[in-house]
Amino acid sequence: MAIGETIRNSQIWKSIFRHPMPLDRRNRIVVMLTNFFLHLHPVSIKKQGIALSFTWCMGGVTFFLFLVETVTGVLLMFYYRPTLEWAYNDILALRDVTSLGILRELHRWGAHAMVITTWLHMYRVFLTGSYKPPREFNWVVGVILLLLTLLLSFTGYLLPWDQLAIWAITVGSNMARATPILGYEGPGQQLLTVGGIDMITDGSDARFGLLGARFVGEETLNRFYVLHCIAIPLAVALLLAIHFWRVRKDGGISGPL
Amino acid sequence: MHSNGLFLKDVAGFLGSYYTALAVMNAVAAYLLWKRKKEPGQALVWTVFAGVMMVLASLALSGSPGLVPALPAWLRGLVNRLSGPVLYTLGTTALLTILFVFRRFFVRPMVAWTILNGMLLLMGLSMADENFASIVMKPDNVPIVGLVFLLAFFTWVATKQAVVNDDRIAQGLPPMEKVNDEKVLVWPDLVYTELICMIAVSAFLLAWAIFLPAPLEEPASSVKTPNPSKAPWYFLGLQEMLVYFDPWYAGVVLPSLVIFGLMAMPYLDFNKKGNGYYSIAERKFSYLTFQFGFLELWITLIILGTFLRGPNWNFFGPFEYWSPYKVEVLNNVDLPQMFWVNLLDRPLPRAPQGASALTQVGTILLREAPGLILLGAYLLVLPPLLAVTVFRGFFARMGFIRYMIMANLMLLMLSLPLKMVLRWTMNLKYLVSIPEFSLNF
Q1: B270, exposed or middle or buried, with CB in 10 Å at 0-12, 13-18, 19+?
Q2: Among B53, B195, B229, B417, whose CB has the most other CB atoms within 10 angstroms?
Q3: Given an 8 Å threshold on Cβ–Cβ distance, is B190 in contact with A41?
């Protein structure tokens, strides 16, 4: 006990936590206001708003899974090189050689779980009518986050560079070929013909933009890697910040008026 | 392929622990019923059930054919023979409708518990079938099995509370969420809940990661196309729609409309009731529309696309071997063919060689007239017609633009089931088929 006391009275500790342990009412309020991570939350909250039967905790679990994916993803990036030469071998090594290769399992199952929990969160928000005014805009942000979650999972699907990966991405991206006007097999692509020259070909259509090539190859691997590790996570982080901020600004967790 | 001894030996350990887990689950339930709820009768029932599960567990552990509990071969054969896209779709629709209409009955805890046990038992019995197990146990398919159970559970949780709230509101009482609206401090009440949630999720994820290796197939090869080639599981509903529509609609336009429709929802739903609590009666229209889109069109199509679509995207029963040689008759016909050739007994209108562009377009329009008129009526005439009949109240309260967006989104959503029905009943391939512009609908 004495050691704990000494630590809590040290200058270092006090420079980080500027108040005593949150054991009484006053300090339980202060902790929420002075801690950067906790101040996302209000100080007090309606009891029914945090009942598990009401929220299912699915938004929180989704966010936690996003953090798990970020941490395991960064660690996996130490081991993985997105080139045709190495991608598959690096994943093999993660399975057979690397210590803590279980990171890949955590990352993959976490990703599947995140898709499911995002859907369940949306399901809950719908069933409690929580998208209604004043929370309409936050629902829209949520739908974009749902879409980005699917895209995160989709871009990550390619990275192991095995049969499962390239064919799933091939099937998934073939659809883009049929984009109206912008896909070279899509309806109305003839409309973008200038002076007899087809502007939309298999080398310039929507699918080409997605894959960076005419078929799923090294350019696609690189493109999906950058999207998966940098572009989409950044977008998600930004929208998450807005999503959480709006929860507070729109009156906190929903409940009967 | 029929179950052989080798497969049963492999699956015996899993099934043994599966039935044991079922037994433990029911023993705990029985204990709680006896101690907490003072229901010795029900406790006895579930104790007996737990005992039966223990017997099944020991039988399963033997790993020998004839002892491992399984569905009889004739029943599996019958299920395979009967199942098909039509029965599957109509069956799930009927099931969801029954669950909805008699929700008061199904939300009763003991009824739900019985159904859960029935589902789990059926799952266990089916797992003793090699063909079933090989699909369901594919690592990337496991999450969907989880999704089915999670959705069933959470739908029950939500419906149970909605039923209670609807009753209360009918009596003039506020919903349950209003009753417990005292305030508590976030530290400790919420912060600790979150901490426990994080630990539970971490533990669950670690266990999953330890027991189920992530899939890794052969190295990628652009010349070896697997059969079937499937998109990631959450897109299999879209891939299933390719059976009925061209990729431009099934793969691009409809998914965009799903996203757009979801975003538009809060701006279309003018019903102020049911905000912030579980309720069905107060918002039946939006509830049914959403559930039709989510549970029926999104989830069941994913399940169909994952578990029941095999090589060449042919339909396979749950216990059927995925043979790449299965042949299905494809005798689908386009509407112009039906109208001009089959009905009027004339050749399809065709522009003469070297005709002007205008004549060619005119001929195409003439050829496709039946489909275009039908589609035009569906998308342009039906919304105003509904506005003065069924949706009169909606139209008055929503205004022109909002009403038109809602009506069109609904009609486009319904285009999928309608196209399914047209395919099943009259082998219709396309209503409009203009290969000249890659425009088929």
Answers
A1: middle
A2: B53
A3: yes
Cross-chain Cβ contact B215/A255 below 8 Å = no
Cβ contact A168–B225 (<8 Å) = no
Q: Mind listing the pLDDT tens digit for each residue in A126-182?
A: 999 999 999 999 999 999 999 999 999 999 999 999 999 999 999 989 888 889 888
Q: How far is B71 from chain A (nearest CA, A)?
A: 30
Nearest CA in chain A to B174: A256
A110 contacts in chain B (CB < 8 Å): 205
Determine, for residues B213 and A131 on separate chains, whether the beta-carbon distance falls below 8 Å.
no
Which residues sit opposite B315 in a β-bridge? B309
Of B121, B104, B107, the residue nearest B26 (C-alpha) = B121
Instruction: Give how far B159 is from chain A: nearest CA, Å.
Output: 9
Residue A34 lies in a domain: no
Residue B11, CA distances (Å) to A225, B1, B60, B144 in order: 37, 16, 9, 20
CB contact under 8 Å between B187 and A22, yes or no, is: yes
| Full residue range of the structural domain in which residue A104 is found | 57-249
Residues of B in contact with A190 (CB under 8 A): 437
Whether A140 maps to a domain, the answer reads yes
pLDDT in tens, B125-136: 999 999 999 999
Cβ-based contacts of B187 with chain A (< 8 Å): 22, 28, 31-32, 38
With 0-12 / 13-18 / 19 or more C-beta atoms within 10 angstroms meaning exposed / middle / buried, residue A164 is: buried
> Which residue, chain included where needed, has tokens 């709680």?
B32
Which position has the token pair 């006990």?
A1
Residue of B410, B153, B115 whose CA lies nearest to B288:
B410
For residue A31, the chain B residues in CB contact (below 8 A) are 187
Give yes or no for B252 touching A (CB within 8 A). yes
Distance (Å, rounded) from C-alpha B299 to C-alpha A168?
19
Contact between B437 and B339 under an 8 Å Cβ cutoff? The reply is: no
If we measure between CA atoms, which residue out of B161, B214, B55, B119 comes closest to residue A72? Answer: B214
**For chain B, what percent of residues have pLDDT higher than 70?**
99
CB contact under 8 A, B177 and A135: no
For chain B positions 110-169, those within 8 Å of chain A (CB to CB) are: 140, 143, 146-147, 150-151, 154, 157-158, 161-162
Report the distance separating Cα A22 and Cα A32, nearest Å.
9
Domain boundaries, chain B: 1-69, 74-175+228-328, 335-440
Residue A40 included in any domain: no
Whether omega before B349 lies within 30 degrees of 0, making that bond cis, reads no
DSSP SS3 for A101: coil
User: pLDDT tens-digit profile of B223-250?
Assistant: 899 999 999 999 999 999 999 999 999 9
Report the alpha-carbon distance of residue A47 to residue B343 in Å, rounded.
Answer: 67
Tell me which residue in A43, A102, A180 faces B252 most closely, judged by beta carbons: A180
What is the CATH number for A240? 1.20.810.10
> Is A13 within a domain?
no
Compare CB distances from A172 to B174, B231, B271 and report the shortest one's residue: B231
The count of structural domains within chain A is 1
Q: What is the mean pLDDT of chain B?
A: 92
What type of residue sits at position B415? S
Tell me the pLDDT tens digit for each residue of A56-75.
999 999 999 999 999 999 99
Using CB atoms, pick whichever of B181, B209, B259 lies closest to residue A47: B181
Which of A120, A127, A239 is the best mutation test for B, with the most CBs of B within 10 A?
A127
DSSP H helices in B171-311: 176-179, 186-211, 236-241, 247, 254-268, 284-291, 300-303
pLDDT at residue number B5: 64
Contacts of A173 (CB under 8 A, 6+ apart): A207, A210, A211, A216
